[in-house]
Specification:
Layout (H helix, E strand, L loop, with lengths): L2 H11 L4 H8 L3 H15 L4 E4 L2 E4 L1 H28 L5 E7 L6 H12 L4 E7 L1 H9 L5 E4 L8 E16 L9 E2 L8 E5 L4 H12 L5 E6 L2 H9 L5 E4 L2 H7 L5 E6 L5 E9 L6 H13 L6
Parallel strand pairs: 3-4, 3-5, 7-11, 8-9
Antiparallel strand pairs: 1-2, 5-12, 6-10, 6-11, 6-12
Helix pairs in contact: 1-2, 1-4, 2-3
Length: 300
């Protein structure tokens, strides 16, 4: 059985068209169709059924895909392990992280690490808080960077830094001339929030409850930039992480004011985690050690 055929099966099973999967495999579409038919003959069951112009997995196909995923993941990890023995500095760091950390912390850590390990490569994934733990448990990432300690005994977590959270209000807001504010002062305001499942959403709700109220939802988004834009448009207020890009926005003419929160702990922990039972590849271990050493240091 050809591994490339299994990869093409996996791609089609996940929604890629046969035409695109064939192009990725550098074969013709009829050749891939014949290969998938032979695969069904080898397995002894129909793996796909056509629904309109789309191929969908049959029940047998869904079962088979679970094993194909495991085989390909094991093979890829084996190739990585061998490559890292041959040249430990040329391995791959598989890293998953929160969306809000992709604009500053992750680029900073990657750049710092590659200064000493220029041959290291990175396989990066973005996800919400819940999805990050799944990346570790499913072995699709060696390390995750997250805003809270995962509630799973199989995962080890270490704090990297404490990131302040500011209350973002429109420039013309009634509190816009203030520098500090109690979160309780905006209990009647509409909040621009990330969707459920994102760490910042959970932290915002917890801080509001600590301040004595439940936030009124004005909008639910998937990116901090969306939150900023809607706050600037006067559609509500939001808790925004105090990252370097936030500070740059605060110093510009962007129509938002960032206020320090005084009645609750306006901050979140940022940490790095890995699966306790699985040994890290050498290059991922070095990245972890470097992150723990350097993440809390101020950016130059």
């Amino acid at each position: 059985m050809d591994l490339q055929v299994l990869r093409s099966f996996q791609a089609v099973a996940e929604g890629t068209t046969v035409t695109d999967a064939a192009a990725d495999a550098r074969i013709t579409q009829p050749a891939l169709s014949r290969a998938l038919n032979r695969l069904e003959e080898e397995v002894g069951a129909e793996l796909f059924q056509r629904v309109g112009r789309v191929l969908r997995l049959t029940p047998a196909g869904r079962i088979f895909k679970e094993h194909v995923d495991a085989v390909l993941d094991s093979y890829d990890r084996g190739r990585r392990a061998v490559a890292e023995v041959v040249d430990p500095d040329a391995g791959v760091v598989s890293l998953a992280f929160l969306h809000t950390l992709g604009t500053w912390l992750v680029p900073r850590l990657v750049t710092d690490f590659r200064r000493k390990h220029p041959k290291a490569r990175f396989e990066l994934h973005q996800d919400g808080e819940i999805g990050l733990s799944r990346h570790l448990l499913d072995a699709t990432a060696d390390l995750i960077i997250t805003s809270s300690e995962p509630d799973d005994p199989l995962i080890t977590w270490r704090r990297l830094l404490v990131e302040p959270l500011w209350l973002a209000v429109p420039t013309r807001h009634r509190l816009g001339r203030r520098r500090r504010v109690r979160l309780a002062e905006v209990a009647e305001e509409r909040f621009i929030l990330l969707k459920p499942g994102y760490g910042l959403r959970s932290i915002t709700e917890a801080l509001c409850h600590e301040a004595g109220f439940t936030p009124l939802v004005g909008f639910e988004g998937e990116e901090v930039e969306t939150l900023r834009g809607l706050v600037a448009a006067g559609l509500g207020v939001s808790l925004i992480p105090s990252s370097p890009d936030t500070a740059a926005t605060a110093a510009s003419d962007f129509p938002i004011r960032y206020l320090e929160i005084t009645d609750v702990r306006g901050a979140r922990d940022i940490g790095i985690a890995w699966l306790s039972s699985r040994g890290l590849p050498p290059v991922a271990r070095r990245f972890l050690d470097r992150a723990l050493e350097s993440a809390a240091a101020p950016a130059p």
